[in-house]
Amino acid sequence: MGYQVNDTSARTSNGWWLSTSVIVYIYSVFDCYFTSPVVHGMRQQRVFWPRNAPKKAPAKRVVLIVGDGLRADLLFNINPFPNIPDSPLSVAPFLRSIASERGAFGISHTRVPTESRPGHVALIGGMYEDVSAVTKGWKTNPVDFDSVFNKSTHTFAYGSPDIVPMFARGVSPEDKVSSWCYDEGEEDFTKDAKELDTWVLARLKETLYNATQHPGSTLDRSLRQEGVVIFLHLLGLDTTGHSYRPFSKEYMQNIIHVDGIVQEVEKLIDDFYSHDDAPENESRTAYVFTADHGMSAIGNHGDGDPDNTRTPLIAWGSGVRGPVPDSSPNSTHDAYSKPAWGQPLTDLARADVQQADVAALMSALLGVDWPMNSVGVVPGLVNGPGYLSESDKRGSEQMARIGVVNARAILEQYRVKHAIKAKHHLRYKSFPPLEPYANGALPPGALELRELERLLAAHDWQTARQQAQHLIDITLEGLGYLQRYDRYVLRFIVTAGYIGWMLLSALHVLHTHVVPQNSAPKTAHVPGVSALDILTWTTTLSTAGVFAYQRSPWTYYLYAGFPIYFFRSILREGSAMYDVLAEEMDWGTFPTPEELLAWGIGSFATLECMTLAYTHRELWTVLFVIVGVVWPILSWPKGFYSQNKRLGLGWTMSCLVSGIFTVLSVEKTESLGLISVGTGAILTLGLAGDSMVKAELSGRPFSLSSVIHRPKGSVQAQMALIVAALVTTISSVRSLQNKEGLPVLNQSAGWIILVLSVVLPALLASSVSSSTSKMQQYFLAFGPLFVLLSISTEGLFYASFSLTLFLWVEVEARLHQTLQKAGPNPVAPKPAKNIGWRAEALSRTLSDDESERPKATKPPVRRLSRGLTGADVRRALFFLFFVQVAFFGAANVASVSSFYLEPVYRLIPVFNPFFMASLLIFKIVAPYVMLSTTFATLNKRVALPSFALFKVALGLTDGTRLMMCSEESADEFYMHTVMSLTFFYLVRDTGSWLEIGQSISFYIITSLLLVWSAGICAAGDWLMKGSVLGDELSGTGDGLDTSRKID
């Protein structure tokens, strides 16, 4: 079928496909790395005893107490709060006494994400949700998989409305879980969070009292049956840690409070069940105390600090072993616990587990069916000591039978997943250690299970335990194999899509900015179906057929559709483009090998530096030094610095100051002093901007002495809001620090100031419509935001970053003016002789959109557009640099550690994750308003049409292939594509939450960067609509001379 390469609709279609593919491929990272492990259809598994030798379950009931956000070291350590006067040597004496005298203890190692929902899913369901599950929210989402609660005879749950309802819904029967939750409004970060835990204790007391007062009632019978679970979720520690941080006096007091609650709970439970347990002359209640996640020193969880993944685990009561001495040669302690935990804990065995193992422990204690999605392993199956008691004569037999059931439950999951894959995948290859036997007549693991049953019948308990552990290990490996089964195919598809995206974009760049207009490649229209069309349809239908047979998600069709479309377009357009290049190539303009090598090294160095800077933030500082110091020394024209000393010195100083922020630690503490200094910097720059606007209006040079003055009009109103924001912030911070709560007046004032500051530029139109005036308005508009939501240096960064952007425009304008005076006007008529297609392309204006519109009859006007130069490539690269610095300057968005909640409490004191996240995102986006207005102004100041520099950034050379076409080019698009692919392969689904979160963030940021850059350009044009340059305002403009006097 025929086509015409320069057809506008075809280019629009390509652009739509390219933009859409960015969004679609961002989602592919979740299909590739983070798919849900939940499957259904498994058979129930539980411990069965021989009829002639029955044995009771180790416990009749289990009490699970979760101290949300509790660090293990602060619970176990001796003198964990040395900086707090009169702090006790042990903040949890009751729990320590249990661990040292009558229970088992250790560390429960959590997995990512270290958030409340996935942590509780691991504890109660015995499985690890995929990382994307954290986006399911914290509210009343039902748990769509099996759990210990669902296997219990009845569960009584008390605690936060963010956790308890998840497990109260979706169980069978529906009334199996009875739950009590406090109101969401009680989760006030400005109040004493210990009251939340006190509320939980009060509801438990109330339940037991009601049952005691009404013996034989439904409540009483439900509590007294075997297999009951009582769940207490204590949120106070998490709330206090976020508000005051873990090493605060408040956090210490909350641990003491929790320790007291645990002591009282044990007494309440034992007293209530004393009559039931009297015949056995011992309590039949087992207790498990742990945490869903820890907390870092800065009051966050999820930033990769090991203290986020190390949580305490203490078990005691019925069926749980007592303390055992630590073996000297092979100590269970490490440098983390010894000597910090002190004696006697360091003399006793420490039993570490994985968080999902807690669900297996509770199932074993209750003797109920195993949660069907659990991957937990009962502790101490082989490598002891564990947590279950083996003191009686049948202890080893009990552990062997529990281990076999544990292996059966996990193997059952593998069998179901294996059957699904085998049924719906072409040429399926099973996990080698679990190959089906007898050509599929026997399911995977059948012979291993037979061997385990033989060992049980032979009473070879120790060998049975070892074989069960071995089967569990290989089955868990098999589950991982099946979880990753489609990953390699999906990686290939996404990689092909990115490569096709890159090549098709390169062809578009060649056609738009390099190939001469009179040489546009065209092909004649050929009726009928071409071989390319047949190949395309064959590939499409075959791929769709395979996906349909395999019952692949609908997103797989999208992933495969893009590379098919891209390569079809490449093959269709590439051949015609090759003919034009071969015919029109001007070898006289071809770069020398030295130039190619230099550009290759430069491009590689830039790519590597940008990539490494995502994990080594100090590289942004190095780039600031290069931009602010090295660039002026090596590249500025001779005599330029001496003629613009103040501007040059200001540029260097602003770059060096801005570079400080990218090496500052992301761990910050609330500082009213730094917030006040940042406010002063914002006000000072506001005054300087007002003076510059007045200087433009009067046509006189700007002077530093004029900065100190009294502003008027809208500027005065905006600066008044900034001062009001500071006063409100100081009052709110002091009130919160004094635990007096957030006054309603302060909260209302904060919201009013924030909203007014944003809408004020639209309500109070400036009397001056210059670009400087508008930039000043937008700068001051976001000033209150960086006061109200600052914790430390954010306001200073905002001021420094904005000043650097403004000076960048001034430097580029002066350089442009100098080059215009030194060289010929680039807006020259098309040469009559053949000067080579490359030189002709470089002399072409970028006003593509204007040239395609119908010509209207208008009086001649001055044209402020020109051709491209090498300096425009530098400006595009600087733009890319500032786009990324805005992300990594005030806050490292690749790490959740930058999302401090303290400033958000000044506006939203009650826990509301979505509104809180919105405020934090708004704070991150604000610097881009300044970047967008700056970039729009820069286009005008250097006499380029809208989107010109963005087109340069997009149209720079695509690898070494397109380097041959331009001596001045370095490829931003190529870099983004390669960076996106690099980070796609570096995405991790294991490791710390920081490592996983960073890998996902890096991939998303690099993928969206070009789309984000286009949005910045569009926003800048819209925000600066109607503004004029200073020389036009004062009537001194002369076309391309767009600099202003500063010295």
Automatic annotation (TrEMBL):
Sequence ranges assigned to domain GPI ethanolamine phosphate transferase 1 C-terminal in this UniProt record: 477-992
Gene3D superfamilies: Alkaline Phosphatase, subunit A
Cellular localization per UniProt: Endoplasmic reticulum membrane
Residue stretches spanning the membrane: 16-36, 488-510, 556-571, 619-636, 648-666, 672-693, 714-736, 748-766, 778-801, 876-901, 913-930, 1000-1024
EC number: 2.-.-.-
Annotated keywords: Cell wall biogenesis/degradation, Endoplasmic reticulum, Glycoprotein, GPI-anchor biosynthesis, Membrane, Transferase, Transmembrane, Transmembrane helix
GO biological process: cell wall organization; GPI anchor biosynthetic process
Membrane topology: Multi-pass membrane protein
Pfam family, one: Phosphodiest
Annotated stretches, region: Disordered: 843-862
Recorded metabolic or biological pathway in which this protein acts: Glycolipid biosynthesis; glycosylphosphatidylinositol-anchor biosynthesis
GO cellular component labels: endoplasmic reticulum membrane
Recorded GO MF terms: mannose-ethanolamine phosphotransferase activity
Family assignment from sequence similarity: Belongs to the PIGG/PIGN/PIGO family. PIGN subfamily.
Its biological purpose: Ethanolamine phosphate transferase involved in glycosylphosphatidylinositol-anchor biosynthesis. Transfers ethanolamine phosphate to the first alpha-1,4-linked mannose of the glycosylphosphatidylinositol precursor of GPI-anchor.
Protein name: GPI ethanolamine phosphate transferase 1
Organism field: Thanatephorus cucumeris (strain AG1-IB / isolate 7/3/14)
Lineage summary: Eukaryota, Fungi, Dikarya, Basidiomycota, Agaricomycotina
